[in-house]
Write a structure and sequence with these properties.
The protein is mostly helical. It contains 4 helices and 2 strands; from the N terminus they run βαβααα. Strands 1-2 form a two-stranded parallel sheet. The termini are close together.
Length: about 80
């Protein structure tokens, strides 16, 4: 079962979810995958233009880009979650 972890920096919850055999969906892991993307030409960005566009599905265009970007990352995680 996929479990969405909130607050995003809760390592204790993430560890407990893993110990009981479930898959934790956390913002830290998602950002970590983006930062560790290999490539010499790719700077370690944690938000991309695609995230900003995807974030428009959850917040209005007037929202700051940081909010849109984070919602672009969090939104798909919430949709994937089963609990």
């Amino acid at each position: 079962m996929k479990v969405f972890i909130f607050p995003p920096n809760s390592l204790i919850l993430s560890d407990l979810v893993e110990r009981f055999g479930h898959t934790p969906l956390s913002l830290g892991r998602e950002i970590g995958e983006r930062v560790r993307d290999p490539g010499l030409d790719n700077p370690p960005l944690n938000l991309t233009e695609e995230d900003l566009v995807r974030g428009l599905r959850y917040v209005s265009i007037e929202a700051p880009s940081g909010v849109r970007g984070r919602m672009g990352v969090l939104g798909p995680l919430v949709e994937q979650a089963e609990a």
